[in-house]
Amino acid sequence: MGKYFSFILIVGLLTCLSCSDEVELGDGDYLVFGQYGAYCGGETCVEFYRLESDRIFEETSDQYTGEGFHPFNNFVELPETAVSIAKELETLFPTRLLVEPDTILGETNVIDAGYLYVEWKSETQHRYWIISNSSPNLLPEYRTFATEISNVINELN
């Protein structure tokens, strides 16, 4: 039992030491964020953006099935002012997400308040998460990040 506990402790410490408090978008890295669902109509029901280190793109097909990675194929580059609006998401990105075992966070199919989509692609990882807008049981750092994503999307629209 003691050896098992020691092993878990060492793995946990090494994991924590290898994680920094902030992520940074390097060459080839990106953060996709967006919203979909909810009781709404029109073009703003599905909004996806792709943030790179110094550029941002808006997805123009405005479609998402709600499952798996978003097929980010049709996009248009936005002006530099849009980059400055979205850049704070890079700073607020909860590094805990990178080790989160679940891809769906919060309660789903309870109230259709919509969902947020987050995708992180780096040299070493490619992950996505779906976050319920209506879930009261998100971790505080996830809630803060989700709120900022909604604010950025509203400002970019």
- Computed over alpha carbons, the radius of gyration is 17 Å
Distance between the termini: 56 Å
Beta-strand residue fraction: 15-25%
How many DSSP-defined strands? 7
**Fraction of residues in helix:** 25-40%
Low-confidence stretches: 4-20
Structural class: alpha+beta
Total helices: the number is 4
Mean pLDDT: 79
With strands numbered from the N-terminus, the spatial order across the biggest sheet is 4-3-2-1-6-7-5
Oligomer: single chain
What order do the helices and strands follow? HEEEEHHEEEH
Shape: globular
Largest sheet: 7 strands, mixed
What does this structure look like?
- It is a single chain.
- The chain is an alpha+beta fold and 157 residues long.
- The protein contains four helices and seven strands; from the N terminus they run H-E-E-E-E-H-H-E-E-E-H.
- It has a seven-stranded mixed β-sheet.
- It is globular and about 35 Å long.
Write the layout of secondary structure elements.
Elements: H1 2-18, E1 30-36, E2 47-51, E3 56-59, E4 75-77, H2 80-86, H3 88-92, E5 104-105, E6 115-121, E7 126-132, H4 140-156
